[in-house]
Structure formats: C-alpha cells, structure tokens
Write a structure and sequence with these properties.
With 297 residues, this protein is mostly helical. Helices cover 76% and strands 0% of the residues. It has 2 domains: 1-73 and 229-297, Ferritin; 77-228, Up-down Bundle (Ferritin). The chain is globular.
Length: 297
Amino acid sequence: MAASAPRSDDVDPSTRTNVTNAMKGEALAHVTYREYAKQADRENLPEVAGLYRRTAHTELREHLTEQAKLIGLVGDNAANLRDSTSGESYEATTMYKNFAEQARADGDRQAARLFSEIAKDEAAHHAKFVEAAKAVTDPSSGTVIPTDVQAKRVAVRAGEPKVSSPRTLENLRTAMKGEAFAYAKYTLYGDKARETGQPRLAKLFHRTAAVERTEHFAEEANLAGAVRDTAANLCATIKGETHEGTQMYPDYARQASAAGDTAVADVLNDTAKDELKHAKAFSGELSKLGRQCSTSS
C-alpha cells in the first residue's frame, strides 16, 4: 500500500474516472463471488467456497475501500445522501424505465416486469433518502430518518440466460453492475453514519444496501445466467482477475503516474499484484477439480 493517500481534490479527473471504474469492478466482483461461493457450497466444494468468500471480502473491504479514499467517495452524511438520492432518481425515472421499455419491445417480458418492479423500489428508496436528508440537514424539522426497509433474499441458481435479446442481456449486466456499486457505496455510507453517531441513518443505508444485493442483483443475476457450475465460475474468475492484474490496473496506474498522481499509481500497482495472486489461487482450485478453461472462452 502507498505510504500516504493524496487529497481527493488533487486527483486528476482522468484518474478519478479510472478509479471509479475500478471500484465498480471490485463491487461487482464482491457480490458475484459471494454467489459463486454459494454455488460451490451446493457442489460440496468448501475450499473453493472459502476462497471466494475471502476474496470477496478483500475486493470490498480492502481494494474498493482503499480506492474510495483516494477519490473521496465518502463525504459527510449530507453529501452521501445527496449522492444516493441522485442515483436512485436516475435509476427510477430513467435507467430502469428505459430498460423495461426495451425489454418489452424485444419480447423479454419477464425482464421487462423485473425492471419495472425495481424502478418502483428505487423510487421508494429515493423518497426515504430525501426524508433522511431533511432530518440530517434540518434537525429542527422534527423529521425522523426512516428505517422501514426490508430486503428479500433471492437465491441465485446456476443456469443459462433466461432472455432472448442481446440488448436485454447487456442491460441486465449493466443493471447488475449498478446494483453492486450501490450496495458497496451504501455499505460505506452506512459505516460513516454509524461512526458519526447516526445509527438510524446507518440502518437505512445498510438495509437499502441489502435490498440492492440480495434482491435486485440476485433477481437480475438469475435472468442473466450470471452463475454457472463452479468450474465455469472459476474460469470466468481467472479470466477476470488476470485481465485486471495484467492490463486494467497496470494501464490505470500508468495513466495516473503520467497525470502526476503517483500515490494513486502505487495503490493501483499494488492492487494489480493482488489480482494476479487471486488468479493463481483460483487456478489452483480449478486444477484440483481436474478441469481446464477453454482457450476460446
């Protein structure tokens, strides 16, 4: 790790964009690996499941958290609520609405229904965050931060995509990435609220994060066929970790260094090394299964 983090307002805009993209990848890896671990459990592969859970923890609580500090992702509670209300508004009124219309036009009615249902959920989240913002910024208003958010636990089962349109499948993957990043951000925002003596706000953030992961992401993952058998999951993981370790993070590090963000470059180079270690560990588990990845995959 770098000896000291840069001030977030000193980071070049291109570096900020790259770090944000990296965080989205780490968030997606975190939630996906948790589902891969459950699939390994179903196949009675405890060592693989354990490796996935440990790596998932690293992706969120080390890589993403460290990157968030580099760009000042987590602000004060009021700033975190502004970001959350903005994101939920976009998803409710624009993104999911458009995805539903496209899925309906493409004949993917199940996906259209899901996108429409999630849009309603996000609108409800937006309303609760607006109420919470009023309570935080105007304590004299008497507004109470709502905490009545309940998450369903949806099981993600291994299988092929359940949609026919490539556009719908791509939209599902985009939505999954968004839900994963929302989960990660709300987790960190909730931690911040708890640390600053706002337990009700912490509960609102953490409970909303749970909805994004265990309900929205899971439902989308089932339609997208995001989980397969463990051997296939391992191959997808090895490919992803290798890409991050050999290409994405080194490229981002070089760009950060060229922009004068040397401390950020140090962190990204360290992360690249971690991802290659992950790839090696997962390759070892695949070898124990006596399986190989297709060179065309």
